[in-house]
C-alpha cells in the first residue's frame, strides 16, 4: 500500500534527518536480530547524501514490527522517515 507522506503522523511533530524511499529491510545473518535498511535517500538534513542516492543505514534500533511506510526508523545517530516500501515480486 502506498501512502502519502503528507498524510502520515510521522510528518507532524516527530523529527527526522532524511527520507528513505523504495526501501527494503536487510537482516544481517551473522548478527541475529540485527537489521538495516537499504533505499533511496532524499532531503538529508545533515547534508551527507545527495537526493536520489542509494544508501544502507547502520543497524536500526526501532522494533522490526514498527518499520512501516510513514513511520520513522531510528539508528543510533539518524532518524529516517520511511516513504514507500519497495514492492516485492
Blueprint of the fold:
Layout: E1 18-27, E2 35-42, E3 53-56, E4 72-74, E5 79-82
Parallel strand pairs: 1-5
Antiparallel strand pairs: 1-2, 2-3, 4-5
Structure description:
The chain has strands at 18-27, 35-42, 53-56, 72-74, 79-82. A 5-stranded mixed sheet has the order 3-2-1-5-4, with no helix packed on it. Helix content is 0%, strand content 33%. With 89 residues, it is mainly beta.
Throw out a few tags for this protein.
89 residues; 5 strands; disordered N terminus
Task: Indicate the proportion of strand residues.
Answer: 25-35%
Taking Cα atoms only, what radius of gyration do you get, to the nearest Å?
A: 12 Å
Main sheet attributes: strand count, strand direction, barrel closure: 5 strands, mixed
Q: By helix and strand content, what is the structural category?
A: mainly beta
Task: Explain briefly what this protein structure is.
With 89 residues, this protein is an all-beta fold.
